[in-house]
């Protein structure tokens, strides 16, 4: 059974993002709010989760579970996006409007994942 092309696109995007957590960890560690302890570990866990979930997305019998996992992951990393918006030092010099748009973008990504939960 083949899955829709846009599910493969989603899987590819999360795979590349997950790999990037290991290639450029400093970029992600920088945006983890200081309230969270051990940002290095959190970075590797979220990157590993993205990689694992992206692989699970491409199998019909695991894609619904992976989609729920992605929704939970997006909820878990939301504080980092909010921290980027609130703290100019960790915003990579991006304009405020882009940082603001990233916040509701998380909801769109959650909805996209939700489409594959059943």
From TrEMBL:
Its main location: membrane. The chain crosses the membrane at residues 6-22, 42-59, 65-85, 97-115. Keywords: Membrane, Transmembrane, Transmembrane helix. The keyword Zinc-finger does not apply. It comes from Flavobacterium procerum. It is found in: Membrane. Coiled coil: none annotated. This is DoxX family membrane protein.
